[in-house]
Amino acid sequence: MAYETILVETHGAVGLVTLNRPQALNALNSTVLKELLAAFAAFEADEAVGAIVLTGSEKAFAAGADIKEMQPLSFPDVVTGDFLGGWDEVAGIRKPVIAAVSGYALGGGCELAMLCDFIIASETAKFGQPEITLGIIPGMGGTQRLTRAVGKAKAMDLVLTGRMMDAAEAERSGLVARIVPADKLVEEALTAAAKIAAFSRASVLLAKESVGRAFEVTLAEGLRYERRQFQSLFATEDQKEGMAAFVEKRKPAFRNR
Ligand code: CO8
């Protein structure tokens, strides 16, 4: 499929999606959403792909929702069309998605990074929820996922003042998993994704699902869910192989069985 706003490649067992609207600092419009969901769906369906990396440019991961697309919209337009509702589908991707963020990740850009499973940031990354400066508020998780990631104090600060935080502050606050040099960003993210893709697929999918569960249910429910998923993996050949390889002091050869 030919895309207009994204670039799609595979690197071994890793799918790489690059946001590609340089003229608008990768602002997210309805075409980006449609194309991103199509690319992710293709990677979900491709058995050879075990993990996905989503990145932008050196200057911007994404500078937010497309303000020029939003400007003329009225209340009935956004409500009846459930404007931005489709972005939640990104969170439904079962394979792990790593956001590799360089430059601006603002508004919807920060929210898109948070829809991924974890964020690897370059030293130049800048995160923020500047919607308040436009007379609106975050609409794709900025008041919810950001608060869960960094806590109330920092989330209130960012959402109410619209200020940006740099990569070091974002890592300190728990938004970012690791910081890497700018010229190594995509390489490091691809390496992390390749590592994940080499593990047993069932354990990877259930690990992602179980961590996600921590944000949805009570601790008791989450622990029970985790234990059942853990126990179910003893039905796989890969569990036998993983443990046999440890005992025999060799590398496991997972076959996704
Ligand atoms: N939408 C549309 N166009 C944009 C956006 C955007 N969010 N951001 C930048 N651009 C365009 C600029 O208009 C400019 O285009 P042109 O050359 O035609 O004038 C081009 O990109 C380059 O931008 P700048 O000249 O402004 O570049 P600077 O380096 O001077 O500044 C900034 C970079 C600081 C990032 C600046 O562009 C900026 O402040 N951008 C807007 C950031 C913002 O407010 N983002 C939040 C948008 S609202 C939002 O995201 C709502 C979230 C709800 C859910 C979203 C789901 C997708």
Automatic annotation (TrEMBL):
<keyword id="KW-0456">Lyase</keyword>
<dbReference type="InterPro" id="IPR029045">
    <property type="entry name" value="ClpP/crotonase-like_dom_sf"/>
</dbReference>
<comment type="function">
    <text>Could possibly oxidize fatty acids using specific components.</text>
</comment>
<dbReference type="GO" id="GO:0006635">
    <property type="term" value="P:fatty acid beta-oxidation"/>
</dbReference>
<protein>
    <recommendedName>
        <fullName>enoyl-CoA hydratase</fullName>
        <ecNumber>4.2.1.17</ecNumber>
    </recommendedName>
</protein>
<keyword id="KW-0443">Lipid metabolism</keyword>
<dbReference type="Pfam" id="PF00378">
    <property type="entry name" value="ECH_1"/>
</dbReference>
<dbReference type="InterPro" id="IPR018376">
    <property type="entry name" value="Enoyl-CoA_hyd/isom_CS"/>
</dbReference>
<dbReference type="InterPro" id="IPR001753">
    <property type="entry name" value="Enoyl-CoA_hydra/iso"/>
</dbReference>
<dbReference type="InterPro" id="IPR014748">
    <property type="entry name" value="Enoyl-CoA_hydra_C"/>
</dbReference>
<comment type="similarity">
    <text>Belongs to the enoyl-CoA hydratase/isomerase family.</text>
</comment>
<keyword id="KW-0276">Fatty acid metabolism</keyword>
<dbReference type="GO" id="GO:0004300">
    <property type="term" value="F:enoyl-CoA hydratase activity"/>
</dbReference>
